[in-house]
Amino acid sequence: MKKEKNIFLNQLKEEPFIEIFRLEDMNDTIFDNYQRYDFYQLLWFTRAGGNCSYFLDFNEYIIKEDQFVLIFPGQIDRLDIEGKEGFLFTIHNDIFYQINQRIKSDYLNGYFAHTFVTADNETRKILEQIRSLILTEYTSENRIVLMQSYMEAFLFYLSSLFETTDIFKNRSDFLVSKLMRLIDLNFIRQRENDFYAAELGVSIKKLNEDCKKGTGKTVKQHLQEKLILEIKKEIRLKQKNLKEIAFDLGFNEAAYFTRFFKKHTSMTPKEFRDSQ
Question: Is the pLDDT of residue 5 over 50?
Fold first, then answer.
């Protein structure tokens, strides 16, 4: 019998955050077991010594210097940190969502997960300057407004690198890409797997298998997360009351709207609104 893989769940903190850590300063126990996180992470390898195997969702990749990989909530990874230098950025889901609302990147949306991006010399110099600003602010006053602005600039340049890189994408990649676009367009009114499977011309089983392999999540999980983020956005805008938000997002009953939100956030819509 195979030994069960050890997976640790790292919970999302309620308050917004952007953090940055040097890989060479981190404890090797952080990466030497499979771990799952429910927030966004960005790894930047500036030196890839020692064992260069990196496991993401149990798939093995060989890392190189000046490579970036974006890790989405729910994915799991493992890395031998010895001989590695670089940086780990951690980003709260709500902040990441707000940033991508402005950038609107297929890469940040997770349309092409498990993708490693390599920086050219010119872009690397720009990213180093922005990273220096992030690190300085993080280790001093750590003002979230500035951190978010710097991180948005960083992710903008990284997304631009992805868009101009000739990356081979197989059929499963394209299927997941089309799925994510369909979810963006239809998640309010269409929340059943059969709709998305029919639109893409595949079975529900095939769709979930490719989605899970490519992003670490099922179709249902993506739909739920998209809906929660939309609810939070509407509450923050303060243009509608909670009943209007529930109705506009397809909830026929206020009680179900409250149960759904509390199940996925551990607080009611009213509690979340008051916390803002």
Answer: no
